[in-house]
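Hi support team,

I'm opening this ticket because the web form for multi-chain structure prediction keeps timing out on my end. I have pasted the exact lines I submitted so you can reproduce it. The total is 677 residues across two entries, so I didn't expect it to be a heavy job. Is there a limit I'm missing, or should I split the entries? Thanks in advance, R.K.
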Amino acid sequence: MSTVIPTPQKPWESTLFEKLENVMIILAAFGLAGASVRLTGLNGKLGFFISLFISLLVLNFGFHFMKRGSAAAKDSLLKVFTVMAIVLTLIPIVSIIATVVSKGYKGLHWGLLTKDMALASVNDPIAAGGLLHALLGTIIMVGGALIISFPIGVLTALYLTEIRGSLTRPIRFLVQAMSGVPSIVAGLFILSSLVYPVTNALSGLMGSLALTILMIPTIARTSEEMLLLISNELREAGVALGGTQWRTVAGVVLPAARSGLVTAIILGVARIIGETAPLLLVSGGGDSVNLNPAEGAMGSLPYYIWKAFLTGGTPEAFARAWGGMLVLLAFIFILFGLARYLSGRKVA
Amino acid sequence: MSLDAPARVVPVPREITTKPRRSDQIFRTVVTIGGMASLAILGLIALFLSIKGVHILVDEKLDFITGSTWEVTTDETGNIVQSTFGIGAMLVGTMLCAFIAILVGVPISVLSALYLTFYANGRIKKFLISVIDLMAAFPSLLFGFWGFFIFMSSAEYWAKLINKYLGFIPIFDVPTPIFERSPFIAGLVLAIMIIPIVTSISREIFDQTPLDRIQAAYALGATKLAMIRSVVIPFGRGGIIGGAMLGLGRAMGETVAVYTVLNVVYQINWQVLFGAGGNVASLILLKFGEATPYEVDALMAAGLILFALTLLVNAAADFLINRLGSKGR
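Hello R.K., no limit was hit. The queue was backed up. Here is the completed structure from your submission:
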């Protein structure tokens, strides 16, 4: 007697033939779209996109209608719509990255990291100035904001996950609401509460404080999500070993969530590193290196870009601005990659 | 039998209590105080903006919201003779841009989220989700300048097309053919900015759809479209609307992107394709540079209104996502 080992079947997966059919439909749609651009008045990218969209809809509908009836035909329309939506979502991001890279590389040179703009104006040749002051200013202000907002954010997250008092719901809402505070309002708040009544001068510290308001909600929400990932068994084990709640949180929960908390920091920094509006109001925006956050105007990357775009007008100024943008974008990519890497690893 | 056997010490049983120890009490107090920070900060924002701005609101009364002039007249010594502040035009502009953003952005976001949840799988899904999350982290400065330098020419062409074929509808009409820097283009840039946020919220909502209901729909012979229409959409309706409201809040408070793309002109303009418009946040940025102290107070009042508006929209969003979102049918 011979045993028959059945080969595994995957009836839900589309067969090679069906995949081929799909490819044919897409190719035919491209052909139709190309033809309609040639033959009719529809021209340009928009015309091509619209005729591609319509021909995809028509071809898919017709094909599936003939094959399996009207329900399947309508179903195929939804697929076309969703795919088109994701394409529409991706077009701007590809365009943005391509623009920044293609225009920004002209503004890059090694002097960027060693010179500031104290002696150079934005319209000077690119090699004349750099963005050292902007880099240092951004690092100081973001660092200052981090020092203030990390403890507050983590305490908020601990309140939401560990204490779970009667105010959990309202506080979760307030954190949500705080993340919706327009960045310019954060700047106005610092102006009205500290700059006008107290210091009467713009400085990096004021910039830090404005950024803090924008950073706290991001850190609080990310940390909360990360702390919720820590399984309750871990907390129970800590308590069962005789730990008080304080010892359990400090010795078990927080160390287990360490990489999650680092992710929260990174996402918080990514959130505020390109923030422009509050810095325009409160940081003063200097052109030379200033390492003292408490006194004097402090430059920053967004301010550097802003100034080069708005006060320049020459190709040098634009190259400088796009170069600054490329540096900013590179920072965001690095931060984001780090966050992905850390949160991809197993928590605890 | 030894004489000096040690007396047996009976340990006093530890008092069993649910009262937290001193260290825990301190811990709980500190964490609770930290947790109140968001409340305190939001309260302080409202308080300080009111302190600076409320006298303007009292002076101008309702005209501050409905009026559409922003004038300060000074005599030679710089004293303010007369001033009228009204942010009506800017409020209209804010709403106009934000609604265009919602109108364009939300359908695209919801469909993208449907694709990510129910069509994409494996590596493509992971990749697309990271790309969209990355886009959500792009600074508004970047969107603004990209919108101004790259996107503007295409969008201007689209605006001309709309005006040519739909110009008989009043809002698509223009007094003079200036299509650059219009609320329409600013709204499209805002739409691009809110798409990643609304997409990821919708995706999270769709992910929460109970699997048994999805499978029940499939078992009854539903196609994907029928399943989504009868299970996913009813279940996630509140969440989607809430996500759209969050996008609205974000679009209303946007400063830099609108300031760069939009031609800020102080007039009420309903014609979305015409190159003049405004936004409360960009007004603040525009006027702040040369503002007299008295005018700064008026800007604070404008900020207060903006703050209250976004708070309101966010509260509505929170309500919709949390109360209605999880209830389903």
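A quick check on our side: The radius of gyration of chain B is 28 Å. Let us know if the file doesn't open in your viewer.
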